[in-house]
Amino acid sequence: EAGVVQSPRYKIIEKKQPVAFWCNPISGHNTLYWYLQNLGQGPELLIRYENEEAVDDSQLPKDRFSAERLKGVDSTLKIQPAELGDSAVYLCASSLGDRGTEAFFGQGTRLTVV
Amino acid sequence: AQSVAQPEDQVNVAEGNPLTVKCTYSVSGNPYLFWYVQYPNRGLQFLLKYITGDNLVKGSYGFEAEFNKSQTSFHLKKPSALVSDSALYFCAVRPRLGNQGGKLIFGQGTELSVKP
Questions:
Q1: Which of A58, A50, A51, A54 lies closest to A67, judged by CA?
Q2: What are the two backbone dihedrals, phi and then psi, of residue B71, each rounded to the nearest 5 degrees?
Q3: B3-115 belongs to which homologous superfamily?
Q4: Are the Cβ atoms of B49 and A91 closer than 8 angstroms?
Q5: Across chain B, where does the E strand assignment appear?
Q6: A78/chain B closest Cα distance in angstroms
Q7: Beta strands B87-94 and B105-106: pairing type?
Q8: Which chain B residues contact residue A45 at CB under 8 A?
Q9: CB B108 within 8 A of CB A42
């Protein structure tokens, strides 16, 4: 069974340009997370979906970040326009709805804004 | 505010010696507790979790963790460290109840270095 798939693995863009990340969770996992991870630090939640509903987006900078999870399966995270400070690794994870279950992570997308 | 603390940025041990990576949390109720490991340029890999029951839980690669409710701690342990255990370790907590239930909160990570 495939794990959480993210693309692209690496992305370099100029500041003020838009960028999008894609995530395909494990089949059957109705909870999907997007995290931001700075070098050597713990992941910070950006947004959490239960099926197609964003149930926690309090940490998402809504002036420039947006996300969607149409049909409650795969998801995209977009930044427009990107800033230098957005350079980080963006991680996607998924889990079953039971809160006692572990989340499985993709390999992440490393974004560099120049 | 709900939080997870890993008081040591780095832990150094010699191969073959026991290791402990510390984690304490400040989350109301009885949260679910997790440990993850991250190798360079990789995503996080699940190691083990505490749901209920025995305070000592066993996980992947010979790791185990001890839950202490009174100290709100969940320390990761291994009886005999391997050089290949060198990586970044994250403790995570998920509240059981309330509108924060489902949210996975991470500590800042501990770099484990095992020397031959």
A1: A54
A2: -95, 0
A3: Immunoglobulins (2.60.40.10)
A4: no
A5: 3-5, 10-14, 19-21, 24-26, 32-38, 44-50, 56-58, 64-68, 73-78, 87-94, 105-106, 110-115
A6: 20
A7: antiparallel
A8: 103-105
A9: yes
Domains of chain A are: 5-113 (2.60.40.10)
List of chain B residues whose C-beta atoms are within 8 Å of the C-beta of residue A59: none
Cβ atoms of residues A38 and A46 within 8 Å: no
Using CB atoms, which residue from A31, A42, A102 is nearest to B102? A31
* Mutation to test the A interface, candidates B3, B44, B100, most A Cβ within 10 Å: B44
- Per residue of chain A (114 residues), what is the pLDDT tens digit? 679 999 999 999 999 999 999 999 999 999 999 999 998 889 999 999 999 999 989 899 999 999 999 888 999 999 999 999 999 999 999 998 777 789 999 999 999 999
The residue among B105, B43, B3 whose CA lies nearest residue A44 is B105
**What tokens appear for A90 in the block?**
């963006």
Q: Which residue is closest to A107 within chain B, CA to CA? A: B43
